Amino acid sequence: MRKIGIVLAVLVCSMLTHAGDYAYLVFTNTVGSKTALPVANLTMTVNGAQLDVTNAEGTVHFTLTDLAAMQFSTDGESLPEGIENVLNADAPLTVYSVNGMSLGTFNSLVQAVQQLDKGTYVMVQNGKSQKLIVK
Asked: Which of 85, 92, 101, 105 has its CA 20 to 30 A from that of 23?
């Protein structure tokens, strides 16, 4: 459960770096249902297996295992269409486990993928980060 909290914190922090242009945070559950909440004065707290999201309108509770995605939206309905690759696949990068432990620096994305076990990782290159899933 602690790992979920850490991953959630990393995701939220990375999303907040570009959140200024967005008025809503949209939560999507595993069955596709969406809940849009205004981001003004928004706070999120992990309470056991639950995410409590509070803003001026009140508090909404989400079960962490039922959440599939959190995305910013300008109008509460339209969502980004994809994830922009921010890393150069042919340049050196550092790979971290989801709990923040450095797993090493690799000469390229291909080298990293060849040497890593199946799992989820965070790649960092030139101050930018991106999630990597090795299958």
From this structure: 85
Architecture of domain 2-73: Roll (2.30)
* pLDDT tens figures, 79-110: 766 556 667 888 899 999 988 999 999 998 88
Q: Name the residue ranges covered by the structural domains of the chain.
A: 2-73, 93-134
Residue 27 Rama label (left phi>0; alpha psi -120 to 50; beta): beta
In order, the DSSP letters of 6-73 are: HHHHHHHHHHHTTGGG-SEEEEEETTS-EEEEE-TT-EEEEETTEEEEEETTEEEEEEGGGEEEEEEE
Instruction: Give the integer Cα–Cα distance in Å for 92 and 106.
Output: 5
Q: What pTM was estimated for this model as a whole?
A: 0.49
